[in-house]
Amino acid sequence: MGSAKAKNSSNAARKARIEEMRRADQARERRNRVLAIGGSVVAVAALVVGVVLVVQSQDDGGGATTDAKTEGHFTTGADGVKTWKGTLGRTHVTKTVHYPTEPPVGGDHNQVWMNCNGDVYTKPLNNMNAVHSLEHGSVWVTYTDKAAKADVEALAAKVRKTPYTLMSPDDKQADPIMLTAWGHQRTVKSASDPDVASFFEKFVQGEQTPEPGAACTGGLSQ
Questions:
Q1: CA neighbours within 13 Å on the CB side: how many for 61?
Q2: What is the mean pLDDT of residues 177-190?
């Protein structure tokens, strides 16, 4: 009889311990869910703050446009090449940049470059992307609708076989055919003008290149 009572008492105690452990487990699960939800909220809040900070830093003031940091002026050498004397900014920006020259010879620009591995474009380029190509050491050939068709075709053929070059129309420029590198620019009379070859030889991946060896592929293409 006493043995049965002892056994029943032991079973009751065991059941009580099991129930207590179950309640403790349930309480831990509730705490873990609360902590998980709280952690997710904190993570999302931190992500939102980070995105806002990145956007603000890229926006650089909240406006839609900005002037390129291109303090200086051109000087023209005896060879007819105009060289920019002064500062050419190299900051990556998301705004539309206004450049003091057309085509621009450098300055702040978009973080994505135009492909310049002998790429010939049939439409005008976004200057902000093309300037990034100049930073990589490319020569940019531009022409207006006043350029002879034969010259445009001959220049396109030269560009296609020359890495670190690109070509596009630009009816905003002053002369029919212009050649541009980072900090340097000149006008040529035709595709057969010997100054074309000399400009390519000197400035394709030339000493003026801010980022020699940087890619001319993997960017934008029309």
A1: 8
A2: 98
